[in-house]
Amino acid sequence: MASSLKSLVNDDDRYQKSFQLFLERSSEHQCMRDFIHNKLPDILASIGDGKLHLNVIGVGSGAGEIDLEMLSELHKKHPGVTVDNEVVEPSRQQLYNYKVLVSQKPDLDYIKFNWNTMTASEFEEHWKAEKATKKVDFIHMIQMLYYVKDPEATVRFFQGLLGKNGKLLIILVSGKSGWGKLWRTYRAQLCQPDISQCVTTGDIKSFLDSKGVRYQSYELPSQMDITECFTEGDEKGELLLDFLTEVLDFSNTASPELRAGVLEMLRHPDCSVESNGKVIFNNNLEAIALDQLS
Fold first, then answer.
1. Binding site: which residues?
2. pLDDT for 135-181, tens place per residue?
């Protein structure tokens, strides 16, 4: 990352605002819901091996909306089981929102929630320090591998926690999305060296292939309206630009050359299509499902 630029994750308040706007302007959660209701049930059907109790870990669970939809599908597939659910999320605000959501939902008494205000790497250290030996039936890592130093090591650790018939689900932006093109072009200027914020499913599949690890993958088509980014001084456009670049106050801190280059790239046919006066960014995601290490 260029030395003059600060990462958006350093300002949690602005990050949460830009993230909420991103959700409003994109079909991100809708494409995840389509996957959860149409494909995930088949993935979850084989877990548990007939057990009456299942262990689940959500890594980077955010405010819990997607977690609870996955847990609902799990309950439909395995209606008689109880669930021990470890929630791993470093943002106190997001964890609070998750707890509020749980308090408003009836019929969750089959789930025991354990709240962990920590990052994935802190949870890994905590797990090792506790010398925990329990095996996990379902682990999900939704849109969070951007924030770890070593995605490969993180995936290996959590895959190693799976029990018999266990499943690890990863969802990230697709290597074929607009994000992939933007990051391949501007990695040096935009990406922080101490985390992996420019990682895509293309990177994850490359290292899984190199190790001979089998997986199933599913494309999740998604798009995002970024038209406001091209109106100079537009408050929402600037928030979206911060989210797209992961740079705090990108419009005012990036060099004029970098800003112009990024805006040109966002309009490029490899990233977006223009339709009815709108610029629609390719926000495609991909889901990868892994089994227990053999």
1. 28, 283
2. 999 999 999 998 898 999 999 999 999 999 999 999 999 999 999 99
Instruction: Pull the structure tokens for residue 93.
Output: 């605000």
Task: Detail the residues annotated as belonging to a binding site for substrate.
Answer: 28, 283
Give all domains of the chain, ordered by start, each with its CATH number.
8-291 (3.40.50.150)
Query: pLDDT tier at 294 (50, 70, 90 boundaries)?
Result: confident
Angle at 217 between CA 216 and CA 220, to 5 degrees: 150
Question: What is the crossing angle of helices 256-267 and 235-245, to 10°?
Answer: 90
Predicted confidence band of residue 251 (pLDDT cuts 50, 70, 90): very high
How far apart (Å, rounded) are the C-alpha atoms in residues 170 and 291? 12
Judge contact between 114 and 85, C-beta under 8 A.
yes
Closest by CA to 246, choosing from 169, 194, 210, 294, is 194
Q: Are 166 and 137 in contact (CB under 8 A)?
A: yes
Q: Burial of 25 by CB count in 10 Å (0-12 exposed, 13-18 middle, 19+ buried)?
A: buried
DSSP run (H or E) holding 85? strand 82-88
Q: Which tokens hold the place of 121?
A: 């790497």
State what percent of residues in the chain have pLDDT above 90.
Answer: 82
CB atoms within 10 A of CB 4: 10
DSSP string, 254-266: S-HHHHHHHHHHH
pTM score = 0.90
d(CA 111, CA 53): 10
Nearest to 282 by CA among 200, 195, 160: 200
Mean pLDDT across the chain: 93
Distance CA 126, CA 62 (A): 20
Q: How far is CA 234 from the centre of its chain?
A: 27
